[in-house]
């Protein structure tokens, strides 16, 4: 028990990382790194406890995925060291997440030109060789997460993280500053943005070379190559790289264990509430989605993949995102525009590879929060129409709620069996809230993590977060649910909502 508590305490420090890296400061207190292409300068930030650390924002690791590069494999950015100043953050990737409508965000956000990373480092002098952590974000937008420091932040060499120019409600920057300046031995971390956030532009695929798909994962692979090649300039040890993420970011970390070309780019992983084994992760029919999206936008769908590609490349990127909503059948499900087993980048289904013990032999921390399933249960409890669909149209709503279509010979029978096992009925009411959440938690989170424990080739450390948060993600997605979710998805992140003073 003591060992488990110590491990969880360590994990709780680790998961609050947003980003990091190492440099030297000049007499003018401006940190910099020297690259083969020139000097890159950052800014000094101050943690809430008054400790200084260095930050570098908006470092490009791939060419902008615009025009002819939309829906194509990412290409490395040449001569990133010539950027000179790295004090202004790049915008987050273009994204749309309907749950944010409850907090006043309804439009498509971000930019298509978004393949940048941020690095932060303790303000130190001399040579360093720190372990490296690379944060893989999930695919949902958190308005309190401040993806990319707000553009309203004035440029300059010094800012206070969590106060002053960085607004309250960006706790990631507060935690980053405290972590970077508090760890005795230090660490180097990288926060990267990828098209994993962008759903359609990141994963739309015709299952051929026209639109190969898996771009969100390929972006991350390219960023990891950047880390391998360049992190030593910031004092990082490229032989000690840990990837970690939450939700879809966690699933991405797991998927990368099965990608042959990534095998030498990291040595450890932390997986928070997401795996490659859930039905949410792998798309069984991406071409069908591409045809549906193209047709809905007026593109020709019967003249071959290249014709469809050219049409989609000519559209405004923001026009693509309402199609993400229209594909849903029950609440936010089924999730669309996800990775697929293409036989090249991702050679075989992860479930097959893990059953054969053929995942990358890396040490991992794997875990969930107790009520992860609230992400799906609470919106249904808040929107009575979804409960009525389960009662009156279970043949559609039941399998859709568990994303079983194409994954079972009789999706309705499997869904009905699960509902009866957990709830004793398909007529769901608020009285079933706890069992409803437990079913989704087990189906999408706990059982897949259990399967990893049974088959992972390397060392594995498990956790379940049961800490009760004062405010929760669940209160955003279901304000009227009487605090039913106490340990929801995203509670293992510092960006979970906090009471503002």
UniProtKB/TrEMBL annotation:
<dbReference type="GO" id="GO:0052689">
    <property type="term" value="F:carboxylic ester hydrolase activity"/>
</dbReference>
<keyword id="KW-0325">Glycoprotein</keyword>
<keyword id="KW-0719">Serine esterase</keyword>
<dbReference type="Pfam" id="PF00135">
    <property type="entry name" value="COesterase"/>
</dbReference>
<feature type="signal peptide">
    <location>
        <begin position="1"/>
        <end position="27"/>
    </location>
</feature>
<feature type="domain" description="Carboxylesterase type B">
    <location>
        <begin position="30"/>
        <end position="139"/>
    </location>
</feature>
<dbReference type="InterPro" id="IPR019826">
    <property type="entry name" value="Carboxylesterase_B_AS"/>
</dbReference>
<comment type="similarity">
    <text>Belongs to the type-B carboxylesterase/lipase family.</text>
</comment>
<dbReference type="InterPro" id="IPR002018">
    <property type="entry name" value="CarbesteraseB"/>
</dbReference>
<keyword id="KW-0378">Hydrolase</keyword>
<dbReference type="InterPro" id="IPR050309">
    <property type="entry name" value="Type-B_Carboxylest/Lipase"/>
</dbReference>
<dbReference type="InterPro" id="IPR029058">
    <property type="entry name" value="AB_hydrolase_fold"/>
</dbReference>
<keyword id="KW-0732">Signal</keyword>
<feature type="domain" description="Carboxylesterase type B">
    <location>
        <begin position="202"/>
        <end position="470"/>
    </location>
</feature>
<dbReference type="InterPro" id="IPR019819">
    <property type="entry name" value="Carboxylesterase_B_CS"/>
</dbReference>
<protein>
    <recommendedName>
        <fullName>Carboxylic ester hydrolase</fullName>
        <ecNumber>3.1.1.-</ecNumber>
    </recommendedName>
</protein>
């Amino acid at each position: 028990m003591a060992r488990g508590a110590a491990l969880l305490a360590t994990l709780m420090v680790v998961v609050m990382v947003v980003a990091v890296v190492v440099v030297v400061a000049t007499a003018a207190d401006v940190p910099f790194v020297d690259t083969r292409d020139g000097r890159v300068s950052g800014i000094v930030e101050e943690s809430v406890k008054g400790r200084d650390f260095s930050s570098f924002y908006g470092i490009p690791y791939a060419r902008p995925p615009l025009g002819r590069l939309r829906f194509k494999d990412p290409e490395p950015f040449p001569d990133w060291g010539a950027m000179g100043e790295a004090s202004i953050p790049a915008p987050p990737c273009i994204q749309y997440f309907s749950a944010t409508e409850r907090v006043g965000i309804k439009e498509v956000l971000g930019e298509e030109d978004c393949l940048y990373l941020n690095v932060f480092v303790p303000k130190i002098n001399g040579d360093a060789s720190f372990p490296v952590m690379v944060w893989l974000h999930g695919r949902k937008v958190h308005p309190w997460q401040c993806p990319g420091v707000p553009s309203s932040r004035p440029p300059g060499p010094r800012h206070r993280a969590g106060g002053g120019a960085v607004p309250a409600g960006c706790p990631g920057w507060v935690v980053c500053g405290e972590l970077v300046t508090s760890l005795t031995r230090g660490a180097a971390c990288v926060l990267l943005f990828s098209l994993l956030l962008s759903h359609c532009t990141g994963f739309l695929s015709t299952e051929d070379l026209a639109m190969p798909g898996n771009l969100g994962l390929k972006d991350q692979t390219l960023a990891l190559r950047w880390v391998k090649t360049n992190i030593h300039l910031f004092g990082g040890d490229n032989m000690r790289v840990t990837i970690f993420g939450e939700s879809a970011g966690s699933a991405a970390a797991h998927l990368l264990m099965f990608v042959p070309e990534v095998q030498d780019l990291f040595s450890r992983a932390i997986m928070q509430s997401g795996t490659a084994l859930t039905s949410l992760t792998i798309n069984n029919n991406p071409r069908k989605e591409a045809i549906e999206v193209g047709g809905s936008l007026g593109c020709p769908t019967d003249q071959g993949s290249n014709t469809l590609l050219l049409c989609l490349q000519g559209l405004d990127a923001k026009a693509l995102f309402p199609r993400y909503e229209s594909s849903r059948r029950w609440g936010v499900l089924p999730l669309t525009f996800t990775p697929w087993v293409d036989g090249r980048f991702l050679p075989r289904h992860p479930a097959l590879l893990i059953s054969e013990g053929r995942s990358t032999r890396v040490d991992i921390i794997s875990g969930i929060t107790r009520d992860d399933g609230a992400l799906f249960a609470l919106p249904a409890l808040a929107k009575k129409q979804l409960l009525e669909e389960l009662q009156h149209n279970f043949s559609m709503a039941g399998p859709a709620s568990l994303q079983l279509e194409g994954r079972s010979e009789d999706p309705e029978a499997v869904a009905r069996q699960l509902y009866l096992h957990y709830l004793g009925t398909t007529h769901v009411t608020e009285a079933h809230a706890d069992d409803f959440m437990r079913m989704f938690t087990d189906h999408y989170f706990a059982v897949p993590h259990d399967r990893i424990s049974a088959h992972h080739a390397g060392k594995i450390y498990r956790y379940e977060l049961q800490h009760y948060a004062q405010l929760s993600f669940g209160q955003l997605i279901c304000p009227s649910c009487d605090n039913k979710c106490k340990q929801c998805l995203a509670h293992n992140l510092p960006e979970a909502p906090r009471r503002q003073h």
